[in-house]
Structures are given as structure tokens and as C-alpha cells.
């Protein structure tokens, strides 16, 4: 290895790339698209969050201005929670458009997250959403292909490679120099853009924790830097293995198709056929079956609830529920809530783990397709990933359960069993309840979720250099 | 002369068809097509399996509810049961899954206010939705253009670059005929592959040989021709193979990824749908407020639509089922306006995207295929409307029993009007076909012009 020589080759590559008009044309197109993507993404996320916050505060206002009501009616009056986009979602939309945006929380019932953007779209969304992440993940590799496909094959065609190799340079030096030059070009063109885009977007989003954001941004920039290096390695390798620049280009475009169109879809559809998830009807029927087995609060002869009654009467030393110092109806209701909630959570966790197994297939494919790896990491760090969506669902369910429990407790202690239905309790009781605040997935958990993908990226980078070394040792590629 | 030129053409055709690009390209497409068939059959098959289970589920569900409520009146029991509806797939949904994976295809409704129940989502893995379907329509819309690019990008430039072209120019009588011959071979091969894969999809997806199947063809042929003409146009510029390949891939990325991405943003900005949240809020408030208000005005709203129930007395100072369902009904009345607006907005979105599609045959073709398959947003809206209708029928079936205070066991719980699925709706496609055709005519004219100036009139090629 001649580092001086590598540096010279790298500098030469840098110069020749910047001498070409295509580089500037392509870069300015990508620049324009990225700026458009960042601006619209940021504006859309901002507007969306305002809309959600407005709806949220209306729900809160309505809740606070409730008249005196029977607590169980309040439990059915329920609460609506609106999902807001994460601060970095303007950069990488991730799953956002395919996840519901609001959920109605009421007693006895676990409702789905409803009204996703995809549900209100007529299919254009399915071509892919224009975000800065999409530009960096999909289009920058194409840029690298277009500026780099002839980097070595061109030298072969005009005979310069032979001349270089007759001098002190080893083939590996040439390849490493070329890789270094192209990587330097890509990094200097796109990393500042990425950093600026992220920083500008963040300063415009109020109230995000600075330290957390800084770590996320650093990690995002690092991951994309490695990703660009990997693509450059692939381009240089293919260019070195091809007999002509044209062949290199065709092969690279094919690889692009494979990585960006074919593999992601195949991996995910494979995942969903390997790990079949239940449909909604099946899911609900399974829960209903478990609930009626565990104890049905609506059935007066149900053994579980007969047992509860006997225990409660004994505990208070009375012989009828009318004589109890608390509202037995509320006690039954809460017991029913405990049962259904536990069963629901069990089934829901199972469903989520099925989905996770499906997604794990895509993650594993990250070792065969670097795009899948960076896609995962990017989504995780932007907080638009599967975990964030699951966390929202789990937290709203937790909130629903606790709210219902509080209401049942009011019912239990402040409403007497006799003439239950006609009583009302002071609205003050309802006003004291805490509001829903989403706790975003902490960065540690995000990193655990993306660890396999991070390893895949590093694996690709290391593997790239090894392959480069193998290619350089083969005489037929010179 | 004619005989030799035909001979040359046949030889060229043979060489081309047996060449590596055609064989590998076709092989790849066939593998993906096979997967596309499997996937379409699998997903739509699952939908059908679920839909087939519904009658049994519904029957058991109603039985359980009726058993529980045996001591109560219909008014109390009617609170509990769900009534299932479904949106059965049209046979062509296997070809173009469209939005069927995103949208719910079964919805269950109670007799309560409908607006809170209409937008329930299906259980889905969002990552699967994000990645999208690898169905047959995807193969035609997305992958076919790539095969066409691979077959066309070097149609003349290859021979120019290898030096054969100079020889060809001097030996053939008409250079125009030679070029036309070369293009003809490629056009024929692509159209034959299109027809073959389409025929396979008809068999594998069991598409009935009726109008819509031919309509799919009616969209696909001009669409494939569009890409052939795009390729021809770029080739007509007379540049190098590398230039042609780069340009064509850029055109493909622009039309199939960037343009739709930007168009989607444009649609979201032009037609936002805040009505979705508004509808939910209004319905909830509209219903719940009534509990704390005098019963008279609530009942009057109900009687305005259902005057026949005025004769039944409603207690002023205590709960009654009649009043309860009147409250639920008024929740819907109060959110009706924003619900109508929401549906209008969705319709506007559809129209707006169709307008945008005029500028991009890729979008036009995708939307047209989804339309033929009844898997687009408009079909989903029709389904939601049918659920609303069913909900009304259910209410109207049970209202008399509720107001008459009939005991639960005295009525036929399964006697309500059966849910009627929407059925296949054929929508006009003329404008889609016309817009692709106009593109094709423009492209053909430009390509012809380019060939004239770059190959036929010029005596020497700059690349030669």
C-alpha cells in the first residue's frame, strides 16, 4: 500500500469527477429535490402536528367542561388521542403514513388506531413518498453509479490502467484510491446537506430535547456516511470487474433495481407469508373466546364472578350486595376490565411479535441489501419506525386502562348501588385526571432495534474492502 | 433486394431473440410474474377466506347475544350485537391489489352512531404496507419499462460503438428501413412478451374472459407502447449506449418515483382532510351532550325522520331505549355535515390525481388498473357508503321492536335485511386510454423527427 499514491489517485478522481458537467447537473437536480423534500416534509409535519394538537386540545376542553355525570357514562364518553409526528419525521417519513392517526379510548373496548393517511390516499402514495431520506437512500446511490461506473473500466478501455500498473502502483492502490476519491466527492456533496437539513428542521421544531436530538443526528449522519461508502465500494468493484464502462453501467443499474425495488418487496412479502398474522375478525374472535373462558361479567351464572361475589361478601361480612359499603356493579366492571385488558394485551403482544418476526426477515435481508439496513436505521433514529408505532398503541391502551380504572373507582366509592343509574358525581372528579402524554421511544431502545442493521452496514463496509482486495489480486480483472 | 432485406431482418430477429438480454430479461420477468401471481392469489385468497367465514361468525355472535339477553327486552339487547359487512374483491383484484391491503374489507357496526364506526382500520403490519405489493400490476407498471429500456438502449449505438454501423450504412439501400426493421423486431418481441405474461396472468389468476379483463389489456398495450416510444425517442437522439441507458433510467425514476412523490405532496396540500377528526369529535359530542339535555328536542329530531314512532310515549324523567337510540341517531345527524365533506374531499383527491395523471402515463396506468380492479379509493368510498346503508336498514329493522318494548326472545334476530355488497362497478376508462394515446402520438412524432435529422439525413454520425 502506497498511501501517497492512493492520495494522488484519489485527488485525481476528485478532480475528474468535478470536471464533468454531468456531476453538476445531477447534483443540482438532487439538491433541488432534497430541498423540496425537506421543505414540504417539514411544512407537512408542522401543519399536521398543529392539526392534531388542535383536535387534542378540543377533546381536552370538552373533557374538562363536562357537567356532573355518572362515572360509567364518562367511561363511555371516552377520550380521543391524536398521534403527533416525531420531530425528525420530516426527514424520514418511515411508517407514519401507514399508521393510524387517532384512537378512541373507552371502557371495555380496545379500539384500533384509525384514519391513516394511506387510507385517505388513492394509491399514488404507493409509488413512494418524497422525503430527504428517500433521496439519500435511493437517488444518491444512483448518483454514485453515474459518476463512478467508468472509474476503473474507463481506465481499462483507454489503456491507462496498464500504464499505471507498470509504475509503482498496485491494483489495490488504484482501487482504494478510486474509492477514496469517489467517497470524498459524495461525502462533501451530501453530508453537509444532510447536516444542514436536519439542523434546520430541528431548530424549527420547538421543545425537542437537545441532547437526544444531537445524538440522533450524529448517528444518522454517521450511518449515511457508511452507506455512501458501501455504495461507492460496490460501484468501484463492479467497475473493476467489468471489461467495458457500458457493461459496468448496465450491471450497476441492475444491482440498483435489485437492491431498491426487488429485494425490499420480496423480503417483506416473504416475511408476511412465513409468519402469518391473523386478520381482524380472527384476532377479535380469539380474544372473545378467551374472555368467555376466563369469566364473563355479563353472565350472572359465571363461576369466576360468582366466586368474586362470594369473596367480596365474606370480606365485608354481609350477606347481600346491597349491604356492601361499595358499589358492587363497579367492582364487577373493573374485574371485567382487568380480565379483558390482560387478555387483549396478551393477544396484542403476540400480534406485535408476529409482525416483528415478519420485519426481522427484512432486517436479515439487510446483509444482502444495504438499502434495507439503512432504511431500518434511518427510521429508527427518526422515530418513525415500528417500535414508535407500537409504543404509541401500548401507551394509549395503558392510558385507557388507567382512566377506566379511575372512573370505576369513582363509581365504586361515590355512587351507591341502589339507584345506581340515576346518580351523578361532581365533574371535579373527572377534571383531576392526567392527560395523555406520549413518551417517545428512548434512543437506547432505538439503537437496540437497529443494532442488526448497523452490524449489517459495517459488515458491508468491511466486506466491500475484502472483495476489493480479492478483485485486485485477480489478473483477469486488470 | 426485398428478399435479402427480409433475410437480414430474420437473421437480426433470430440473433436478437436468442441474445442474452432478451432471454435473461424475460426469465427475470417470468420469475417475478410467477411470484406476483402467487402473491395476488394469496392475499386476495385470504380476503375471500375471511369473508366466507363471516356468516358463521355473525350467526354465532348473534346467538350468544340473544342467549345473554333472554330476560331483557330488545331495547337492551340491541346495544350489544355487531353486524358484519364485507367488501368482496372483484376477480381483477388479484391482478391489481391497489389499496385493498390498506383499507378494511370487513367492517362491523352496532346500532350506535355510525360515524365512529366507519373508519375502523384493518389489522396490518405497517412495514408491509409501506413496502407495497408485488402484484401483477406492479410487474407491468414498474418492471416492464425496465425490460424495455434494457432492450432498446443500445439498438443502434451498440453497432455504432463496435464500428459495424458504418458498414451497415454503406451496404444497405435504405437506412430508414434498416432502423425500422431493428425497431420492429424489438417492438414485436416486447408486445409478444406482454401478451404472453398477460395470458399467463389470466390463467394463473383465473381472470374471467369478460369486459374488465380486456380493459386491462386496453390499458397495458398503450402503456407498453408508451415506454417503447420513450426508448425510441432517446435512441433517436443518436448518442452513446451509456448516455441512452442513463437517460432512460433517469426518465424511469422521474416518472415512476419522483413525479408521483411530488404529486402526492401536491394532493395532500391541495386537498387536506381535517374532516376526519372533526367528524369523530362532532359525533361523540353530538350524542353525549344529549344525556344532559331535556329529552323533548332530541326526540323531535328523531321524529323529523321517523314520524311513525311519535305515538310511543317516552318517559321524561328516566332512561328509555327509544330515547337512547334517538340520542345515537342525533350524534350522526350532527356529524353528517363533516362526514359529507370528508367524502367530498376524498372524491376531489381522486379527481385531482386523475388530472395530474394526464402528465404522467405511469400514474394514469396505475390508477386505471386499480379502477378496473375496483381496488381504488373510489371503490372503498362506495363500500363505506354501503355500510352506512346497511346500518340504516339494521336500525330501521329494530326500531319497531325497541319502541314496542318487545322481549328479546320474541323476535327473529337474523331477520334484518341482509347486507348487500357493492358489486362490480365499471367506470369509464376512455380518458385514461386517450391520455396515454396522446402521449404516444407526440412521442412517435418527436422520435420520427429525431431519426430523420440524426440518422437518415446526416451523412456521418458524430459517434461513428
UniProtKB/TrEMBL annotation, chain A:
Claim: Transmembrane helix is one of the keywords in the record: yes
Membrane-spanning intervals of the chain: 24-42, 130-149, 184-205, 217-241, 247-263, 447-471
InterPro entries (alphabetical): DUF3526
Keywords noted in UniProt: Membrane, Transmembrane, Transmembrane helix
Pfam families tied to this protein: ABC2_membrane_2, DUF3526
Protein known as: DUF3526 domain-containing protein
Annotated source species: Dyadobacter sandarakinus
From TrEMBL, chain B:
InterPro entries, alphabetized: DUF3526 (IPR021913)
Keyword Nucleotide-binding carried by entry: no
Residues annotated as transmembrane: 21-39, 137-156, 184-207, 213-236, 248-271, 429-451
Entry keywords, A to Z: Membrane, Transmembrane, Transmembrane helix
Domain of life: Bacteria
Full protein name: DUF3526 domain-containing protein
